[in-house]
């Protein structure tokens, strides 16, 4: 029963975290819009029926039933049609009707006397600032949350303390659990390294963590090294000679073995001594935060670039029963499920569970930042692209002394918006279904 309650708590934490992130995203749009004098009729969190709302000044603030997004309603999002276009757009076909409906809805937000307080009349740079405000807010949230994880909770890393010493050398891919009688002793075991030894230095170079030690050992095959260890408070010097060994190459971005063209695992020759390191939680310096955010941004960008094939993999897993890619896309249902599973895991210390949930929220905000910058309507990036195109057009018109072409008619891309919404809806349905019937296995 307790496990179920903790699972629900984890899901609720993620739902609240997502709702707050969305609310702050919209604040990122709201504040500069009001600062630049645009009339904002609504500030809403969620979609569907309104649960409650309150009007302050000229803006209605409220919460809707489905906390899966949000919006602010700015006066005059689309410019009016140019002379001679309105009637043609209204009678030609379905998509043209969508364009005209968008213009009509935009015009209805403009009250008499407020014509100068419309979004489309703003200078380009102000429109870009307003539309960048939301994604920038998500980026700032991510920076703060990654700072909490890295500098507050810390991250697990391999320490300089030996946690495992193999007694013998086994070939790559071996599944043996004990050493055969004729096995070659592992270099570390033969040199006298023991569990609990803390490696202080190697050949006079001070060691700071297990990754540094492993790198030195890998690059020192058949070379005798002077390894200074701290054992029970006293330092001892041991001579360790890493043996040449073949090891599978692991792709750091996926955690999977790299494969050659024929599908066989790729191996390389490295130095091997046969030790493992105990892990420790270490707080990182503030300087580690921005690189961590950047790595997360590049991961999301790569995921979006390869989204079609990733979705094919999700569909195969959802309908064919294959294994989900741990680094693949997930829906809000999948994110909530991950949070619930971690929070309900008794074997993990509560501090580590909290760090995971905060890290998940940080990654979610990075995803919102990157996704909203895609230059397609109705995303923020679509409005930014429209404003930049307008700036270029007006710049060329001024350069060649031509008449001002006026604002870019972003209403004309409403059919594209319609298509994008359908695609996003289909993607969401697929991901939600996959996260229900075949979720990502966090512990696989």
Structure explained in plain terms:
The protein is of the alpha+beta class and 444 residues long. Helix content is 47%, strand content 19%. It has helices at 2-35, 86-91, 94-108, 124-153, 187-191, 210-218, 289-305, 307-320, 332-343, 350-372, 380-399, 414-437, and strands at 40-56, 59-74, 155-165, 198-202, 205-206, 225-231, 234-240, 243-248, 267-272, 275-282. A 4-stranded antiparallel sheet has the order 5-4-6-7. A two-stranded antiparallel sheet has the order 1-2. It has a two-stranded antiparallel sheet with strand order 3-10. A hairpin with a 2-residue loop joins strand 6 (225-231) and strand 7. It is elongated and about 90 Å long. The two termini are 24 Å apart.
Structural class: alpha+beta
User: What is the overall pLDDT average?
Assistant: 84
In what order do the strands lie side by side in the largest sheet?
A: 5-4-6-7
- Annotation, overall tally of beta strands: 10
Distance between the termini: 24 Å
Number of helices: 12
Radius of gyration: 29 Å
Sequence of secondary-structure elements: HEEHHHEHEEHEEEEEHHHHHH
What order do the helices and strands come in, and which of them pair?
Elements: H1 2-35, E1 40-56, E2 59-74, H2 86-91, H3 94-108, H4 124-153, E3 155-165, H5 187-191, E4 198-202, E5 205-206, H6 210-218, E6 225-231, E7 234-240, E8 243-248, E9 267-272, E10 275-282, H7 289-305, H8 307-320, H9 332-343, H10 350-372, H11 380-399, H12 414-437
Antiparallel strand pairs: 1-2, 3-10, 4-5, 4-6, 6-7, 8-9
Helix pairs in contact: 1-4, 1-9, 1-10, 4-7, 4-10, 4-11, 7-10, 8-12, 9-10, 9-12
């Amino acid at each position: 029963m307790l496990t179920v309650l903790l699972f629900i708590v984890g899901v609720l934490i993620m739902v609240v975290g997502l709702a707050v992130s969305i609310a702050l995203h919209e604040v990122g749009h709201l504040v500069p819009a009001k600062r630049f004098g645009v009339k904002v009729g609504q500030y809403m969190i969620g979609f569907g029926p309104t649960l409650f709302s309150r009007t302050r000044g000229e803006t209605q603030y409220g919460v809707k039933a489905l906390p899966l997004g949000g919006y602010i309603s700015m006066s005059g999002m689309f410019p009016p049609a140019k002379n001679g276009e309105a009637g043609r757009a209204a009678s030609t076909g379905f998509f043209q009707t969508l364009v005209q409906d968008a213009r009509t809805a935009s015009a209805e937000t403009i009250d008499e006397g407020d014509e100068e307080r419309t979004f489309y009349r703003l200078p380009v740079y102000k429109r870009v600032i307003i539309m960048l405000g939301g994604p920038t807010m998500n980026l700032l949230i991510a920076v703060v949350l990654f700072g909490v994880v890295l500098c507050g909770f810390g991250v697990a890393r391999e320490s300089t303390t030996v946690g495992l010493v193999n007694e013998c050398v086994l070939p790559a891919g071996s599944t043996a659990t004990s050493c055969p009688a004729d096995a070659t002793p592992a270099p570390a075991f033969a040199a006298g390294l023991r569990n609990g030894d803390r490696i202080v230095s190697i050949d006079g170079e001070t060691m700071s963590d297990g990754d540094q030690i492993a790198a030195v050992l890998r690059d020192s095959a058949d070379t005798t090294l002077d390894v200074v260890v701290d054992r029970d408070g006293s330092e001892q010097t041991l001579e360790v000679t890493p043996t040449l060994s073949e090891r599978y190459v692991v792709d750091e971005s996926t955690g999977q073995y790299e494969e050659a063209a024929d599908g066989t695992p790729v191996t390389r020759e490295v130095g091997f001594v046969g030790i493992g390191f105990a892990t420790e939680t270490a707080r990182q310096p503030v300087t580690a935060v921005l690189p961590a955010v950047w790595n997360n941004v590049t991961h999301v960008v790569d995921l979006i670039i390869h989204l079609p094939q990733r979705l094919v993999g999700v569909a195969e897993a959802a309908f064919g029963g294959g294994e989900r890619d741990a680094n693949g896309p997930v829906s809000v249902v999948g994110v909530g499920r991950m949070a619930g599973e971690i929070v309900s895991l008794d074997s993990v210390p509560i501090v580590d569970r909290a760090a995971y949930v905060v890290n998940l929220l940080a990654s979610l905000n990075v995803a919102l930042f990157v996704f909203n910058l895609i230059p397609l309507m109705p995303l923020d990036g679509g409005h930014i692209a429209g404003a930049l195109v307008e700036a270029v057009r007006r710049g060329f018109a001024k350069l060649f002394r031509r008449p001002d072409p006026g604002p870019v008619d972003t209403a004309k891309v409403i059919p594209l918006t319609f298509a994008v919404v359908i695609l996003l809806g289909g993607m969401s349905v697929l991901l939600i279904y996959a996260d229900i019937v075949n979720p990502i296995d966090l512990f696989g």
